[in-house]
């Protein structure tokens, strides 16, 4: 039995970013399992950038799950967000005696150094490793829920131009379910990977998504195209050996969203 779980199956788990896409799902799952799950975000009076509300919300917390994200994706802004937020949060966790820090990161973060966002996620991971707080980092592949944004970012003159490298997207529900399993458990002291059931060329994924959503934009697989500013290779956006695999396929997700 996990040291965290020993003595009580109910614990206080604070979810930073608990009102967002993943956080709101995670809060619901944790509460269903009997935990005292607390959503912490600027909307609930907790600001990791300034430290406001952190000491109060972490009082009595055994676990913190950080699924927060930067409000700006400009390179300098996103790096400043994860460094400042991470520093403040981890310092507050040490003071509160938090026993497990769980953070959501991105598969391939260390394989795409041209991406300012992914460089910032690597910096966040380094802060966690050096913090002294027992931790688990869940690196997930891109979410199905963001396929529309990926298509939008690649659209020029009405044509979606993206690399043809493989992507292995995962459903937000599978990400939340994995976090709900990891949070009350023993800290891994390293990285756990999660991806969707299928990997296929990014341009093929977007053709399927746009066709299913009634969007007639043509999609072109272009070797010169960039994925949010970075080139992608055959393993940049897919999981490695031993990864956890979600159960929801793209077909399942598209059917459900209808």
DSSP helix count? 8
Q: Mean of residue pLDDT?
A: 94
State the distance separating the first and last CA atoms: 41 Å
Q: What is the number of E strands?
A: 12
- Percent range of helical residues: 25-40%
Percent in strands: 15-25%
The spatial strand order of the largest sheet comes to 2-1-3-4-5-9-12
**Can you write the helix and strand succession as a string?**
EHEHEHEHEHEEEHEEHEEH
Q: Describe the sheet with the most strands.
A: 7 strands, parallel
Pick out the low-confidence regions: none
- Backbone shape: globular
Description of the molecule:
With 258 residues, the chain is α/β, with parallel strands linked by helices. It is 35% helix and 18% strand. The chain contains 8 helices and 12 strands. The strands form 3 sheets. The chain has a 7-stranded parallel beta sheet with strand order 2-1-3-4-5-9-12, sandwiched between helices. Strands 6-7-11 form a 3-stranded mixed beta sheet. Strands 8-10 form a two-stranded antiparallel sheet. β4, α4 and β5 (135-140) form a beta-alpha-beta unit. α1 crosses α6 (172-182), α3 (75-96) runs parallel beside α4 (116-130) and α5 crosses α7 (202-212). The longest helix has 22 residues, at 75-96. It is globular and about 55 Å long. The N and C termini lie far apart (41 Å). The mean pLDDT is 94.
Give the SSE map.
Blueprint: E1 12-16, H1 21-32, E2 36-40, H2 54-58, E3 63-66, H3 75-96, E4 100-106, H4 116-130, E5 135-140, H5 147-153, E6 155-156, E7 159-162, E8 166-167, H6 172-182, E9 191-195, E10 200-201, H7 202-212, E11 219-221, E12 244-245, H8 250-257
Parallel strand pairs: 1-2, 1-3, 3-4, 4-5, 5-9, 7-11, 9-12
Antiparallel strand pairs: 6-7, 8-10
Helix pairs in contact: 1-6, 3-4, 5-7
């Amino acid at each position: 039995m996990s040291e965290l779980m020993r003595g009580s199956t109910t614990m206080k788990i604070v979810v930073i970013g608990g009102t967002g896409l993943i956080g709101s799902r995670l809060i619901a799952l944790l509460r269903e399992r009997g935990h005292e799950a607390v959503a912490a975000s600027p909307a609930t009076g907790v600001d990791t950038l300034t430290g406001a509300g952190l000491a109060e919300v972490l009082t009595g917390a055994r676990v913190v799950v950080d699924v927060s994200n930067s409000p700006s994706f400009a390179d300098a802004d996103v790096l400043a967000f994860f460094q400042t937020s991470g520093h403040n949060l981890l310092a507050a966790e040490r003071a509160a005696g938090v026993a497990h820090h769980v953070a959501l990161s991105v598969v391939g973060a260390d394989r795409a150094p041209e991406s300012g966002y992914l460089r910032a996620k690597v910096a966040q991971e380094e802060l966690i490793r050096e913090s002294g707080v027992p931790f688990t980092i869940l690196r997930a592949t891109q979410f199905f829920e963001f396929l529309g944004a990926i298509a939008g970012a690649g659209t020029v003159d009405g044509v979606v131009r993206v690399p043809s490298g493989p992507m292995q997207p995962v459903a937000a529900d599978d990400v939340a379910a994995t976090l709900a399993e990891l949070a009350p458990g023993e800290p891994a002291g390293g990285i756990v990977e999660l991806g969707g059931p299928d990997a296929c060329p990014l341009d093929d994924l977007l053709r399927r998504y746009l066709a299913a959503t009634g969007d007639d934009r043509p999609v072109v697989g272009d070797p010169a195209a960039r994925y949010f500013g970075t080139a992608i290779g055959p393993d940049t956006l897919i999981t490695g050996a031993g990864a956890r695999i979600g159960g929801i396929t793209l077909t399942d997700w598209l059917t459900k969203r209808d």
